[in-house]
Queue: 3 jobs
Job 1
Amino acid sequence: MKILSRIFDNRINAHNILTEISIGEYLEIANFISKNNPLQRKRLKSYSSIYNLLKEDIKIGCTIPPIVLALSNDIQENIDINNADEDIIKNYINHHKDKLIILDGLQRTHLLIDVDQDLHSENNINVLNKFHNHKLRFEIYLGIKKIGILYRMLTLNTGQSPMSVRHQIEILYSDYLDESISSEIKLLKEVDEPSPHEIGEYRFEYRFNDVIDGFTSYLLRDEASLDRRDLLEIIKSLENLAQENQNKDLFKSYLVTYNEFVKKIRELSGDWKFNDEQIRLSSKPFGDSVDKIFTKSPLMTGFGAAVGFLKDKHLINSFDDINQKITQIHLSNNDQSFLDELILTLDDISKTARKIGTSQRMYFYYFFRELFNSESDSCLSIDKSIESSFKKYRLNEL
């Protein structure tokens, strides 16, 4: 690896290092990324004729555009990039290659891996060595915040066939699947089966995909599906968030705060369980326990979008304000059956909803707005917020 230049990116406050590297050396890094971050293994389902042509060109030594990587500043060990010499930077990159993320060039990387596999199968050592020794350039962003990574991912991939915004957010925060956010929170992978009776050392379990939904709703200030958002609108949202994420991990702040809310609900509801013998519904209940209700995506997306709304309206400054409000949440009538009312309300919504998931997210968006908005008559009252948010939901549906 040879460092060619260093440029500071003022837009995302990160150093951009342009390097020259042999394909063989880059493949070691690429395979490491794929092995350690399965979310970066996704490739196009079928290559176009252009990609197939590029594949053949690569075999004979064509030059491809630079690949762009990033190394987040979440790493505990940081270096003074301005004053670090080339060897220090190279050692720093190699030492933390398990944390590298491909911002631009994922499909080109897959092509290089495919060519390498083809040449190995052909057992032509001379051609394989020539391929491995051929040079390519890659840029790497150092000292970059995760929001900056997402911003640069989107701008680099505009006009191509990029990964979805949601998938890119999954990539950025997938390290939390292996690292504990707190001693009482566990994130479950898609293949995991949550078992409320076997929580073990963790007291709260959430599916990683559902948390990603909720956090994305916070980032974009919208509980609705990402498909309904324009890319330019998303990028503009991230521009504002870059200033907010100066010193805190927003993903962690979002989840820890939401978890505090769930803890408060557990406290207020006691040992509540839904009893279908006492209450008749038109369909299956949204959930029959606190955990089965409040660990679902519609709750998390509604919470994220509502907190974002309150912040943009300058009604709160940060998640710290929400944490303070959570300690003051109460029941106006001191009745622990408030969750029965919530289930009945959601049942009413299901009777008329065109798209049940969309309607549920919208309802919970209004619910959290009412609950945490100091200008609302329902502020900090769970039972009042359940009722007033349903009225706002109905008005919006008309």
Job 2
Amino acid sequence: MKAFPGARSEARLLVPALMFIALVVAAVASLGTPLITSVATSFHVSLGSAQWTLTAALLSGAVATPVLGWLGAGPHRRATILATLAVVVAGSVLTVLPLPFAWLLVGRAAQGVGLGLTALMMGVARDHLPEERSASVIALISVVSIIGAGVGYPLAALLAELGGVRAAYGLGLVVTAAALLTAWRSMPEAPKAAPPTWNCSRRLACSASASAASRPRCPVSSWPSPPRARYRAP
């Protein structure tokens, strides 16, 4: 949608929502780093095991990002965003409840799924903001996601010192629930487009290989030889 009459009023609500969601998912995913020592002490596990509270979030984010990008490229982008945030909220609940350490890892993996939403926020900005503004908003989303990762460190450490690990993860539950409510109220439907297919990358790879195979090649024997100086007897 480009330059609709109501685009400016819509952008006033949409841009802060995009920034807030990108900030929240980045901050929540980074909560594991400053809490590793506190998790090891609270759950009576080794530091190596406690480090999985960060690794699980990063791994699930790496897996979820291409999947969410594929789902969000079609007409179900709004539903994908809401469902993903619901998974993040459910994971935040698991991190707050007094459950065994394994459930904490499950909750952290669910929180890491939210890392895939950054690309979807950029897609929403591209499709629903005026063309002259979408590029700057996409750049701001990238910056905000980095800021969110940095903001999560001191806040989590402070809350863990004051109220323990559950208090730090409780902050994650509050902000992810707020992000879900924000997305439900402000995320527009995706514009009508052809549904994506998993065969796209395969077709690109096949066309690239076919192009390379059909490219004419000169045999070595047909290459021109360098000029040789003729020897004349004195």
Job 3
Amino acid sequence: MRDTARMAENDAHITVLTLQDEGDALREALLSHDLTEVRFRAREMARLALVLGLTSVQRAATQVIDQMGPEGSSPRWGYGAAIFALSDALHAVERPQF
């Protein structure tokens, strides 16, 4: 039973690390002006945050998605602030200790 609990805990840590990796990928896409990739990464972050029950990260990622607008459109005014809010929410997540 303990091993099962430990495995579940490790899986959750891996998922948090995956969420952080998605944040890094979103940043790189933003720096590359690849808005399609920014939209994709924001959607993936919202999905992962929902699975993890990280409401603040999920809301912030959803705000980025809303501000980015539909594929092929220009981002709405305020999208930068939404990305900063997502970054802040992600940094507030407790980092796994190995």
